[in-house]
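Review form for a predicted model. The reviewer records the input and the model, then writes brief findings.
Reviewer: anonymous (R2)
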Amino acid sequence: MHIPGGFIDNLTCVWTSSLAIGALGVAAVRLRKNQKSEAHQHISAVAVAGTGAGIFALQMLNFPISATVSGHVLGGALAAIALGPWLGIYCMASVLLVQCVLFGDGGLDALGANVLNMAVVGCSVGHLVHSRLLRRTTFASTVLAGSFAAWASVLAASLLCAVELALSGTAGSWELLSNLLASHAVIGLGEALCTAIALVVILQLSKSSVGLPWRASAKVAISAGMLAMLLLTPLRATTPDGLEAASEQLGFAHLARLPDFALMPSYMVAAIPSTWFSSLVAGLLGIVTMWALGHLLGKSLRTHSLK
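Model under review:
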C-alpha cells in the first residue's frame, strides 16, 4: 500500500506530512511521559530493533489474494501490540523511511502520507481495537484480539489511502474506495494470520499473555524474519499489490514516478544478476539496516529515560 510519487498532489502531500509530523510529535511527548512506567522499562533496544527488522522482513513477502493481485503485511497492529502505540508509530515510521530511501518503495513526496496511513493510523487503530477487545489477558484472547485488530488496521489504512487519492483527483472516489477496500479486506486476513503467528511465538517465549521480557522474543523475531526471507523469497507473489492493481484497473498507473535516489530500487542489487539472490541480498541488507536503526531508536529512548 506504499503510495508512489505522482499519485497524490502537492496539497495532499503537505497536509498528510503535517499530520504525520504532528502525530510523531504527540508520540514523542507521550513516550517521555511513559518512560518511568513499568511497561516501558520492559521494552529494550533489542526489542525495538527486532520488531522493526521483523516487520520489514514480513513486508518483503507478498502473498497472492487472487490470480492477478497480491498483498503484504503492513505490521502496524503488531508493532503497537509489541511496543505500545507510541513507540510502535516510530518503529513503523523507521521501516517506511528505510523502504523509501534504500529501495524506492513509496515516493519521497508521499512519505508523509505513507507514515500517516501505515504508521500512525495502522498503529493507532490496531492498538485501539486490540485494547477494546482484550477484556481478559489470556493467551487465546490476546491472539484473537490481535488478529482482528490487525485486520481492522489494514482496512483503516486503505480507507485513508483512498481518501488521499480521491482528494488528489487521481481517480473517482467511489471506484477507489470500493476497489481498495475490497482487495485490502482480503489482504487483512493475511495480516491477521501473520499477526496471530507472531503473537503466538512472542507469548510462548514470554511465558505470559502480557509482554514481559521481550529480549529473547526480539532475537527470535529477527532470526525468524531472516529465515522466512531465505525460504520464501523464491515463492513470493510477483503480481501487483492492492494499490498497484487498482492503479492499473482504474487507469492511473502511468502517474507513478520511479525514484532516482534509491540505492536498491525494487529490492534488487544491480551488481547481482540472479533475480532471486539479488532480492535476497537486498532484503538482508534492509533487515540489517532496520536492526541498526531500531536499536539506535530504542537506545536513545532508554538513555533519555535515565536522565
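Findings: Residues 10-31+42-224+238-305 form a domain with the Arp2/3 complex 21 kDa subunit ARPC3 fold (CATH 1.10.1760.20).
Further findings: The beta strands are 63-64, 70-71.
Recommendation: see findings above.
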